[in-house]
Amino acid sequence: MALDRTALPIALVIGGGAIEVVRSLQIAGLPCAVVSTPGDATKYSTRCTPVFHWDWTQPLEAHDEALADRLVAWARAQPEPPVLFYSSDQALLFVSRHRDRLQRGFRISIPDAELVEAMADKGLFSNLAERLSLPVPATTVIPPGLGDEPPDLTELGYPLIIKPERRDRGWRHICDQGGVKVKALVIEDEQRLREVWPMLAEMGRTLVAQQFVTGAESAIESYHVYSDSHGEIVAEFTGKKIRTYPLECGFTTSLSITDVADVLHAGRKLVELLDLRGMAKFDYKRAADGQLYLFEINARTSLWNHPGARAGVNIPAAVYADLTGRPRPALAAHPRPVKWVHPKDVLAARAGGMSVGRWLRFAARCEAKAFWSWRDPMPFVGMAASRARVGEFS
């Protein structure tokens, strides 16, 4: 399906959770298209063209040359080469592994292939962290095939967390805690490890065990950056989680855009150390003594791009400008304080003891809201209707 030939080059977003990336592009007035998962609320947008649906939660092998060729065929039907953005780990790895093919039709900014693999795979990331002496918590990589007995993790100390090398359908089944999904399992002691080990062993996957840095999820801070093809930092901001659901090891439901000096300093040092090109998000957790521990790096777009754009640092728009040869957008040296909220935050707030009335006042004051745009309200309406049908907000 060809788009309006009088338009600017299209920005195509692929991967899960595309709507918040689309919002950042819409703020910049850029035309958008999307290849997202069937359940993604982006499909309801009247201001973003759906190309086709694709299940990005499938194993990596499913995102193959045939998919790349299908995307390139669409790209070549456009009046100018589109700019490609990728909003999930599966989409990132797909683009990286098929970059030569995709560059026949798209303009792409992406880090070095070896670095992408090391950042996307938590086992490889552990090796990278050790080689570069990155400030990560003590970590042990658990290979598959250990049998019925769990490994001895006493050197890490309890509590600890266990997470997969990559989150996929298999992990979603394991981590489903009474219908609520978590990013990692918190293991309080050896007895708990023995309880969950049969499920973990059955996965047959490499796992990562890591020392648990105590503190609430609100102690997680992040550095967001776009470094151009010359290694110059073009756009950056810091952020902090407010709440996740569930409250521990959950998914972000509210956050704030910040301007924190030591997080900026740590992020800039890491960009230089990695010789990074492209977009990235560095996740840290601040310990009780103030030290920042690095947890992971996501070299892709994310939900943070929407509130970041409203704070004055529109990273996707800056990438688009560089790849299309257009002037870069104005980028704030010091972003405005902006809060973002997801509808599921009401569940997180209730779990933390906040009344619904108080939460509604908090949400009303948030400058950015997940799915929402006055000019394009249907993604929010469609999302709310579909989730109300299954009682997700009850």
Written overview of the protein:
The two termini are 40 Å apart. The protein folds into three domains: 11-117, Rossmann fold, CATH 3.40.50.20; 138-211, Dna Ligase, domain 1; 217-389, D-amino Acid Aminotransferase, Chain A, domain 1, CATH 3.30.470. 43% of the residues are buried. The radius of gyration is 21 Å and the shape is globular. The model is unreliable at 1-5 (pLDDT under 50). Helix 1 (19-27) links the parallel strand 1 and strand 2 (32-35). It has 14 helices and 17 strands. The protein has helices spanning 19-27, 65-76, 89-97, 99-102, 113-120, 122-132, 169-174, 190-203, 261-274, 305-310, 315-324, 345-351, 356-365, 378-389, and strands spanning 11-14, 32-35, 48-50, 83-86, 139-142, 160-164, 176-177, 180-181, 185-187, 207-211, 220-227, 233-245, 251-258, 278-286, 292-298, 338-341, 368-369. With 394 residues, the protein is α+β, with helices and mostly antiparallel strands.
Overall domain count: 3
Give the overall average pLDDT.
92
Main beta-sheet strand count, sense and barrel state = 7 strands, mixed
Shape: globular
